[in-house]
């Protein structure tokens, strides 16, 4: 599932291709592409011009020259591709936005989603943030991210650290891959209770989350199963640098002990039993 580095890679690609462009034709091609909370069908955005592409955590939205905004969530397998106007059939194409006027150089922004957990929505802005993104906390790359306040918030949770890290209403952007990697880097067991951890340890987890996501962003994110690609159709290659995620049975890059996988909160958690002893 795309996490912050993958979504930011997509945002940067979209920014390059769509800012200043007009959605000259909009087509929704699958009933599930429209979020049920959308205030209108996607087609109402025909004629809107894109001012910027924004992101918070794993959510994207397009600021337009109108009060409405287009919000996107990639879900498990959503992709945006910028392509020349399609002539043949495009597999799993859920929505298409023609950019600018017809002509030889005309391009289309395509939303492709094999597993249909991704969605698009027409939404309104409240203080610059779409209604659908209001419950999402700032991510560690946000200029107004308040590290101290987040440490206090996590410390007060009566839950395990990994659950707190995945809670998008505390800090956004981190999903299963980068949670496991951050905890390994910070040498914290995923099942440690937040109240067992010192503020310094929680701070270290947050810093490592930011660090690992920044490094992933530099190489275009992690592409696990070809479902995530950037707007040019290229994969990221951070999976080569993953220390624990998907590495069950492999040696820990730090101590050589076998990486273990446990099921935790209905998802896999990967960790080193020596480096991340409880
Ligand atoms: Zn180790």
UniProtKB/TrEMBL annotation:
Entry-linked CDD domains: EcFpg-like_N
Residue ranges of domain Formamidopyrimidine-DNA glycosylase catalytic in the record: 2-118
Names of the cofactor(s): Zn(2+)
GO biological process, one term: base-excision repair
Keywords, ordered alphabetically: DNA damage, DNA repair, DNA-binding, Glycosidase, Hydrolase, Lyase, Metal-binding, Multifunctional enzyme, Zinc, Zinc-finger
Pfam families: Fapy_DNA_glyco (PF01149), H2TH (PF06831), zf-FPG_IleRS (PF06827)
InterPro entries in UniProt: DNA_glyclase_Znf_dom_DNA_BS, FPG_cat, FPG_Glyclase, FPG_N, H2TH_FPG, Ribosomal_uS13-like_H2TH, Znf_DNA_glyclase/AP_lyase, Znf_FPG/IleRS
UniProt xrefs under SMART domains: Fapy_DNA_glyco (SM00898), H2TH (SM01232)
UniProt keyword Chaperone present: no
The keyword Zinc is assigned to this record: yes
Subunit structure: Monomer.
Family statement: Belongs to the FPG family.
Protein's name in the database: Unannotated protein
Taxonomy of the source species: unclassified sequences, metagenomes, ecological metagenomes
């Amino acid at each position: 599932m795309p996490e912050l580095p993958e979504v930011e890679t997509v945002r940067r690609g979209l920014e390059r291709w769509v800012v200043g462009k007009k959605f000259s034709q909009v087509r929704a091609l699958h009933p599930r592409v429209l979020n049920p909370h959308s205030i209108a069908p996607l087609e109402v955005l025909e004629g809107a011009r894109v001012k910027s592409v924004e992101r918070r955590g794993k959510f994207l939205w397009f600021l337009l020259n109108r009060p409405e905004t287009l919000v996107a969530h990639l879900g498990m397998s959503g992709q945006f591709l910028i392509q020349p106007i399609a002539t043949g059939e495009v597999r799993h194409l859920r929505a298409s936005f023609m950019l600018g006027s017809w002509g030889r150089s005309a391009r289309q922004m395509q939303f492709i989603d094999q597993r249909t957990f991704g969605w698009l929505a027409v939404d309104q802005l409240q203080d610059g943030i779409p209604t659908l993104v209001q419950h999402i906390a700032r991510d560690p790359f946000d200029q107004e991210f308040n590290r101290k306040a987040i440490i206090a918030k996590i410390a007060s949770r009566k839950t395990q650290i990994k659950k707190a890290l995945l809670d998008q209403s505390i800090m956004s952007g981190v999903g299963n891959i980068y949670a496991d990697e951050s905890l390994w880097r910070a040498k914290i067991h995923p099942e440690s209770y937040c109240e067992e951890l010192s503020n310094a340890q929680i701070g270290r987890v947050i810093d490592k989350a930011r660090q690992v996501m920044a490094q992933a962003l530099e190489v275009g994110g992690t592409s696990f199963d070809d479902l995530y690609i950037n707007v040019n159709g290229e994969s990221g290659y951070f999976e080569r640098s993953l220390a624990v995620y998907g590495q069950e049975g492999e040696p820990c890059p730090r101590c050589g002990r076998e990486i273990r996988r446990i099921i935790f909160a209905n998802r896999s958690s990967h960790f080193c039993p020596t480096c991340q002893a409880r």
